[in-house]
């Protein structure tokens, strides 16, 4: 059975969205959450097939952003449909940069548009799962354009873009020492050894959040770093 989370602090709006979903998918399990804390607790327990999410929850203006980050960390790839009163012209691109799948602005759409968008996301997610090749448990997956966080053992690694570029450079040259000077080429600002070491430290910490035994980034004193996996 598909499971959907509707995270919306306004109960009439939440009930309306749930009603629309039930009308088109009567057997779907729908969990309603009305604040960030309960939503994040549920996300830690459950794996949802789709999350419908408001940005503002109670007094927290950007609670939805924090929840998307939680989703990305815990369940990389879970589709998120943002439904918010924030102006779409501004927030659609922001939400997509955070890996939300689509954005609907409240008061500007009807039931038919919501249902069409909801079902399209659900079908696309299912197709992606069906088409995805099996990933070995210890394999690192990197986006070829370095625009999305990598995954390690199937779990998302949260890294800023510069750290992703450093990681990609090390992996491309696996087994070889990559010098500080070569790593300066992917660091847009702060091109010095201390800054590179800070980025590498961030990489190690991010991997160890999901794999405490991670040791694939090797420090080569006075020279640089090596991906030794």
From TrEMBL:
| Positions of the Response regulatory domain | 3-121
Q: Which PANTHER family match?
A: REGULATOR OF RPOS (PTHR48111), TWO-COMPONENT RESPONSE REGULATOR ORR33 (PTHR48111:SF1)
Which Gene Ontology MF annotations are present?
Answer: DNA binding
State if Transcription is listed as a keyword.
yes
Taking the record's annotation, the residue ranges forming a coiled coil are: none
Q: What is this protein called?
A: DNA-binding response OmpR family regulator
User: Which Pfam families does the record match to this protein?
Assistant: Response_reg, Trans_reg_C
Q: Which UniProt keywords apply?
A: DNA-binding, Phosphoprotein, Transcription, Transcription regulation, Two-component regulatory system
> SUPFAM superfamilies from the xrefs?
C-terminal effector domain of the bipartite response regulators (SSF46894), CheY-like (SSF52172)
Task: Note the CDD domains from the entry.
Answer: trans_reg_C (cd00383)
Q: What domain of life does the UniProt record list for this protein's source?
A: Bacteria
List every position bearing 4-aspartylphosphate: 54
Looking up Gene3D superfamilies in the UniProt record yields:
3.40.50.2300, Winged helix-like DNA-binding domain superfamily/Winged helix DNA-binding domain
């Amino acid at each position: 059975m598909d499971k959907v989370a509707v995270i919306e602090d306004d109960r009439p709006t939440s009930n309306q969205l749930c009603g629309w979903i039930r009308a088109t998918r009567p057997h779907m399990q729908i969990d309603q959450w009305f604040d960030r804390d309960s939503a994040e607790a549920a996300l830690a327990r459950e794996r949802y097939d789709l999350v419908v999410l408001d940005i503002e929850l109670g007094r927290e203006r950007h609670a939805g952003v924090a929840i998307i980050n939680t989703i990305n960390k815990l369940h990389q790839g879970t589709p998120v449909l943002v439904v918010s009163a924030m102006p779409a012209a501004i927030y659609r691109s922001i939400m997509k940069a955070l890996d939300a799948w689509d954005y609907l602005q409240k008061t500007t759409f009807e039931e038919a548009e919501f249902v069409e968008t909801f079902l399209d996301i659900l079908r696309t997610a299912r197709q992606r799962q069906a088409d995805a090749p099996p990933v070995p448990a210890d394999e690192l997956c990197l986006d070829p354009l370095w625009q999305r966080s990598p995954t390690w053992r199937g779990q998302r690694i949260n890294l800023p873009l510069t750290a992703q570029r450093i990681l990609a450079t090390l992996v491309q040259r696996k087994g070889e020492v990559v010098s500080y000077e070569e790593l300066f080429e992917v660091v847009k600002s702060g091109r010095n050894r201390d800054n590179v070491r800070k980025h590498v430290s961030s990489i190690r910490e991010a991997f160890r959040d999901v794999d405490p035994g991670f040791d694939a980034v090797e420090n080569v004193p006075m020279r640089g770093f090596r991906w030794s996996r």
